[in-house]
């Protein structure tokens, strides 16, 4: 169950919103200016409070500031003052942290990455006539992809570093950077260099000028964020939702929040589209939510609804796959044979990587670990089953026992690790017992090299001793348990936004040459 971050004021504002309104923004692709009428335009709710707080932060992030860590992003919680997102740091384009996971390069030994185009069946914009694309154009596009993808996922680089990383000559890199700059996709920042000689400019993905809107739909909280190229989170809006609601209402709500972000972003920012993470089964290709039990949605054409309402191309993906993709792309790479389980407010999701590739299953819905049966008899589950993993291993039950409100996941993690609250410790042991049943099934069925636990499952894991952690997979059959590594990963609140934005960025990364001049 989602943990409400609402306030009485925000609850009061969670009544039926206005109909979808027209949003006018500038498309990154020439000839496809988005100015679509999706309603009567009434009820514009541009929030001065949210806009002022957000634009104060975003406005400070000029292109040249990309080499300066922006610090924690502001989140505008409806009806309250802006505050930082707990556990969310945003990404500084100038952080210089090593990034693994570009689409184009072989992964380092033992590491793999989720390719976002696998999640969305991304295509280049329809105006492209591939038959007329010459071989030279194809090579140029590929090289532009390589350079932009490197800067997007791994952060700023000097030209010689780009040449080294891509294997391209310095002169070719110079031409490619010039073209990317002309299209407004990268900027140059002169950074002081140690030693003598001229300072060498740093090439930075233009996270301030090229953005996507990320949406995360939980059962009681809706989050909408403006995310810049390079993984810079500019602004986050959070709104309470009173449980499962009609998808049309959620679409209205998202449309209104997107309009606020577009207004705050201003005309100088180009917005590529919207990416939405949904806790449920999403049909890859057309963004139809087949079933999202915690939202009580079935067969909802969410991508088409939001595209029509906002005029921004919308792509929808499963939240766990989206988080894993961002963890892979912006993180340290992933094991080639990995099972991922993430405990979120809306339940337990998951995904599978086998031999370096995301496993989709026959229809694209593999990885629903939250609905593995672990208790008989057990509690009824929203999926219609009984005794599913997520009915027994649940964040809201831990929060209730710990008497926490869920606003700060680090508080729960700290309480679990202290192990000084007897009731919480009892509940943690009970939940870990059920998690062990699920992990036994995981190991027996898939023989993964790594089990990665995210969200509150990571906190549960990290609260245990080494011996207790090993016991979670020790009862699997035979030799499979001998080689599996189990570890936790944090940051899903940030990763879900970065990953959702990637759903919109993936088309750009495939064809930077189709972007019009800045
Ligand atoms: Zn279930």
UniProtKB/TrEMBL annotation:
SUPFAM superfamilies: Actin-like ATPase domain (SSF53067), Winged helix' DNA-binding domain (SSF46785). Coiled coil: none annotated. Residues 1-27, 43-69, 85-101 have a biased composition (Low complexity). Residues 1-110 are annotated as: Disordered. Transmembrane segments: none annotated. Belongs to the ROK (NagC/XylR) family. This is Transcriptional regulator. It comes from Serinibacter arcticus.
């Amino acid at each position: 169950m989602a943990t409400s971050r609402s306030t009485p004021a925000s609850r009061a504002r969670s009544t039926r919103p206005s109909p979808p309104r027209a949003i006018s923004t500038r498309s990154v692709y020439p000839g496809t200016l988005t100015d679509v009428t999706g309603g009567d335009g009434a009820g514009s709710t541009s929030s001065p409070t949210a806009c002022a707080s957000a634009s104060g932060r975003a406005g400070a992030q000029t292109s040249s500031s990309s080499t300066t860590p922006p610090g924690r992003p502001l989140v505008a919680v409806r009806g309250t003052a802006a505050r930082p997102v707990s556990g969310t740091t945003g990404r500084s384009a100038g952080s210089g942290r090593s990034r693994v996971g570009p689409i184009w390069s072989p992964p380092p030994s033992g590491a793999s990455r989720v390719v976002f185009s696998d999640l969305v069946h991304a295509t280049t914009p329809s105006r492209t006539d591939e038959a007329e694309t010459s071989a030279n154009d194809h090579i140029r596009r590929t090289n532009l992809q390589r350079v932009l993808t490197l800067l997007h996922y791994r952060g700023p680089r000097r030209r010689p570093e780009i040449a080294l990383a891509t294997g391209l000559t310095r002169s070719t890199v110079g031409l490619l950077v010039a073209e990317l700059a002309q299209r407004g996709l990268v900027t140059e920042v002169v950074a002081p260099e140690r030693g003598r000689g001229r300072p060498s400019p740093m090439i930075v993905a233009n996270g301030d000028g090229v953005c996507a809107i990320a949406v995360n739909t939980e059962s009681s909280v809706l989050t909408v964020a403006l995310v810049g190229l390079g993984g810079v989170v500019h602004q986050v809006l959070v709104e309470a939702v009173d449980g499962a609601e009609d998808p049309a209402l959620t679409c209205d709500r998202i449309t209104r929040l997107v309009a606020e972000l577009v207004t705050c972003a201003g005309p100088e920012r180009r917005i590529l589209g919207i990416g939405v993470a949904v806790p449920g089964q999403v049909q890859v290709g057309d963004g139809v939510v087949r079933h999202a039990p915690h939202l009580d949605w079935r067969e909802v054409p969410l991508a088409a609804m939001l595209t029509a309402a906002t005029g921004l191309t919308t792509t929808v993906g499963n939240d766990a796959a989206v988080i894993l993709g961002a963890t892979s792309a912006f993180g340290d790479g992933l094991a080639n044979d990995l099972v991922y389980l993430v405990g979120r407010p809306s339940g337990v999701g998951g995904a599978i990587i086998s031999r370096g590739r995301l496993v989709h299953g026959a229809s694209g819905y593999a990885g629903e670990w939250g609905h593995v049966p672990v208790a008989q008899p057990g509690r009824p589950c929203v999926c219609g089953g009984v005794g599913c993993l997520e009915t027994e291993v649940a964040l809201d039950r831990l929060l209730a026992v710990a008497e926490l409100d869920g606003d700060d996941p680090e508080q729960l993690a700290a309480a679990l690790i202290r192990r000084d609250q007897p009731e919480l410790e009892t509940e943690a042991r009970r939940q870990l017992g059920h998690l062990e049943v699920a992990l036994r099934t995981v190991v027996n069925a898939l023989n993964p090299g790594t089990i990665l636990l995210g969200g509150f499952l990571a906190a549960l894991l990290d609260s245990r001793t080494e011996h207790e952690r090993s016991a979670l997979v020790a009862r699997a059959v035979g030799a499979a348990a001998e080689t599996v590594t189990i570890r936790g990963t944090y940051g899903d609140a940030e990763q879900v936004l970065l990953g959702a934005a990637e759903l919109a960025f993936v088309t750009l990364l495939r064809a930077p040459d189709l972007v019009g001049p800045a």
